[in-house]
Amino acid sequence: MKIKSELFIFLSELKENNNREWFQANKDRYENDVKDPLLSFIAAFSERAPEISTSIMAIPRVSGGSLFRIYRDMRFSKDKTPYKTGAGIHFRHKRGKDVHAPGYYLHLEPGDVFAGCGIWKPNTETVNKIRTKIATHPDQWLNIIKDKKFETTFTIGGDSLMRPPKGFDPEHPLIEDLKRKDYLASVVLNEKIVGEPDFLDYYVELCKTAAPFMEFLTRAVGLDW
Prior knowledge:
Elements: H1 5-16, H2 20-25, H3 27-48, E1 87-92, E2 103-109, E3 112-119, H4 124-136, H5 138-145, H6 148-153, E4 155-157, H7 175-178, E5 183-188, H8 191-194, H9 199-220
Antiparallel strand pairs: 1-2, 2-3, 3-5, 4-5
């Protein structure tokens, strides 16, 4: 299953016409070219998800499901454009109640296509559980992030503390990993890759490559994988 070029065409035009009048006039295109195809992709992925983990959910709907809404939350933003110009899919952990739980993510936006996984902005208790597991199981962590296939595919990123976190040895050999505030891994894609007929297979393999990283984080915060 592939992501058709019509999705990117629509999102490109939406970026140039980010207003309610244009969107309402083109809402059928959004439904036909973006929403419905992505729901179909999510449904297809749901059949493959157990190959990765029985704890990852793929729910083909918007409200309470895996597809993010197109509508922006403008309440606390200076940017008052009403619509997102990229489509986001989040395959979250079955115990996760929000986007800060371990999960996989696929972002589709003209000029900005990527797949990611991990935990974004976890709270203090959660991030300290991850740091503790890294500090006490350094070899396991290094075997995962230095695995040849993982290391050549994914880049670990996110925000970090300026100083070592309280309660952890500043001289720990993995102090830079202990300073992380996010534990994320991502790989840059492009419209050509996601437009290939076998993209679903390709994406599943990416998720499998990242599974040891995801399992480490998931078990560190006390969840089943």
